[in-house]
Structure formats: C-alpha cells, structure tokens
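BUG: 3D viewer hangs when loading the predicted structure for this chain

Environment: internal workstation, default settings.
Expected: structure renders.
Actual: progress bar stalls at 90%.

Input used:
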Amino acid sequence: MLTKLTYRVLPYSGANSRQISEVVNNAMGGKLNNTSNVTLTASSATQTSIDDPRIGVNSVLLFTPTSSAGMTFHGDMFVSARAEGSAVITHSVNTSGDRTFAFAIIG
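Structure tokens produced before the viewer hung:
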C-alpha cells in the first residue's frame, strides 16, 4: 500500500512562519495525514496485511466501512498484530465480495 501524504509536512531543518501556520491550521481543521484505505478481498484468507510507514507497534487503527459489504463485516475483524510499518487484520473467511474500509492511524 502506497502512502500518499495529502497535506504539507514541515522540514526537520525548520520552516518559515507561513509554512508553520499552514500546517498548524490544517491540523486544527482535522487534516492530519493519518488516513488510508484497505480492501478485504473475497477469498478464503483470514488475515489481511496493511503496509504503511506511519504504523508503529503502539498505533491504534480505527476502521470505517466504505461499502455495504464492509458494513456487514465490520464487527468480525480485529487488528491482531502491529509492527513498525505494518499491521495484520484478522477476520473470518470472506467469500461474498470485496469489503472496503477507510482507516485512521493514531500514534
């Protein structure tokens, strides 16, 4: 999964006041560069991996179904492993079609 940062990030070497203002105002408006999408494809698999450099061992992943199939499946999945740059979702067998979710990474 390719991570695309939509909003400006500040350089570690410093930034001017306009750049800092833009980043702070975006963050206060909820634009945090911490969301992505995942699809649980129709298959006999019971685990789906998410690779994203923003995920850490202590990250919390919050999922929102973005398809009607995802809505019926939402209570039947959990994050079973987290590592630097990846996480594993464990779920029941999905044979009825792709189920899509948006998720936020916190921490």
